[in-house]
Amino acid sequence: MIRGGDIAKGSCLLQNGQPYLVVEREFHTPGKGTAIARVKMKSIKDGSVLTLTIPTQQEVEDAEVEFHVCQYQYADTDNYHFMDGETYDQYDVPIKSHENAKFYLKEGDSYDLTFWAGTVIDIKIPYKVVFTVAESENYVKGDTVSGATKPVVTETGLTVRVPLFIKQGEKIRVNTETGEYVERVND
Hints:
There is one protein chain. This protein is an all-beta fold. Helices cover about 0% and strands about 55% of the residues.
């Protein structure tokens, strides 16, 4: 249990039998009465958002979650397969619960997995990821006006719109929240 006054951004709380991650927390002290914490939480399982007002002295149930750094191995038709680098334990994560992750997971890379009640409930994808351009059409300078873009396909199958100067084999940085091109990466 955790008191409402001790809740911090990043805390995990249990509401309606599901774990929620606190994404925003604000304290409010009215002229009369008890101070309260306004908490905005995001479900770790399904991404739904919940907003609560909790008196600072009231206790709420905190979710016992664990985080493990695991290496992404491969995906089959039903699951993503990860391995813990320290214990060599294997974990299967259903693809249907993390459908969008398939374009951002790269074999051999490590990701933080969130565990609750012994099962994986979330894969933490970094905010920005570097990809190699696998397919790209070539355009000649001067074909279009400034600021023109073209679609390219990365090694994971993600299609991204990039500036015309990006060529096949180059590396690009992509924002994983929006799926948009950020910059070219020079090694």
